[in-house]
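Attaching the record inline, Q. Sequence:
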Amino acid sequence: MADIEDIATRIAGIILSPDSVYGLINGALTVPVDFGYMAYGVFDTGSRYIHETMRIRMAAAIRSDILNHHHISEAVKLVFNDFNKYVSETEQDKIYRGVVSSVLGRLGTSMVITKISGAVLERVSFISACSSKPYIGAISTILMIGGMSERSIRTSESLQAEFPEIYKLLRPRDYDLLYFLFKSSVQPFVDAIHVRMTQGEPTFRKIMDSVEKKLNAA
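Structure, as predicted:
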């Protein structure tokens, strides 16, 4: 678990500069990483049955259009709503007014969610466009889809093991399968929620106090 100051620094960084999520997501959603996950899946025969069951669930979710903008936004929103329920309205006003000068208080949450959802769709669209060339592109698409599906499954498993409170939040709507797409941009908020669940309210309050100080000093 990251320490209090590290979590606070990462939260403040995203709030002060929402556009930074583009860099986080671009760095996370890369083709080489997907190839690595795909290779990992090939050699990890012990989990093959469990993963096959999850792939069936994934296929059903894709048929239900889970990869559209609405579902990605809703998945991100669930995480932020869970974070915000532990933060008073007064604190939210102080925190999120740093997002954009003309947007005050809790409206800032929507701004961050919009940035994250847009960054995810932009990156996924870019990967798809780059993989649409004849022959080589078609093969790359097949391999990449395999890698992305493997990453989706393993990220869901890690979420369940490390942050069960967030997994339980996302799993009913199959949003745990989308988590790998935006994990890098919500992780500090997830870390803060987990600290509250495992270390208690006083430690969570220390994180929020530190976030406020960093925002005021900016």
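The two ends are 26 Å apart (CA to CA). The chain has one domain: 4-217.

More tomorrow.
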